[in-house]
Write a structure and sequence with these properties.
This protein is mostly helical. It is built from 9 helices and 2 strands, in the order ααββααααααα. It has a single domain, classed as Hypothetical protein af1432 (Orthogonal Bundle). The structure holds fe (ii) ion (FE2) (2 copies). One fe (ii) ion binds next to helix 3.
């Protein structure tokens, strides 16, 4: 209960902001970007408690890490989100840095991919988190994304299964 109160205190203004609410219209991993950001923020908050990080920083950067409308590429959207977050919510430089580096997990996979060129491999350094909260938000984003894609897959498979049953019933 105390945790929820603290979480609400730091997120209220952002969650009630009209521009941020528009993220509900953007689909993301089979869900919407608003819910995705909220999940990442809450998980970042819990992990920051465990590892004694700065909770406010983890919550805010977690909530704003995917704050962009429409579409963007995997490695371009972090900078766009940091700019949007600065413009609308006056975040600190540390929080902006966390947002900019939240795709380190993706950049790292590109680096390890033997089919990628030197340019992609260079990128990984740029995206390396520079703070404890940066690592926390990056890991939370990865975990939440895996969870969301899993749910999406289950739903997708369930739909296929239902269609298959309906098809069988026709005969
Ligand atoms: Fe992202
Ligand atoms: Fe994300």
């Amino acid at each position: 209960m105390k945790l929820n109160k603290e979480f609400k205190e730091y997120t209220r203004d952002i969650l009630e902001n009209e521009d941020f609410k528009l993220l509900k219209n953007d689909s993301h991993h089979g869900t919407n970007r608003y819910d995705h950001c909220k999940r990442v923020s809450y998980l970042s908050f819990l992990i920051s408690k465990i590892f004694k990080g700065n909770s406010e920083r983890a919550i805010k950067a977690g909530l704003l890490h995917d704050y962009f409308h429409g579409t963007s590429s995997y490695l371009e959207h972090p900078s766009i989100c940091a700019l949007n977050a600065k413009e609308h919510f006056n975040i600190t430089d540390e929080e902006a840095e966390i947002i900019k580096t939240h795709m380190y997990h993706y950049a790292l996979v590109q680096k390890l991919n033997p089919f990628k060129g030197k340019e992609d491999k260079k990128n990984a350094k740029e995206y390396r988190p520079t703070s404890k909260e940066g690592v926390i938000v990056c890991v939370s984003d990865l975990l939440v994304s895996i969870f969301e894609c899993g749910i999406f897959k289950v739903r997708y498979n369930a739909c296929l299964y239902i269609l298959f049953i309906i098809n069988l019933m026709r005969y």
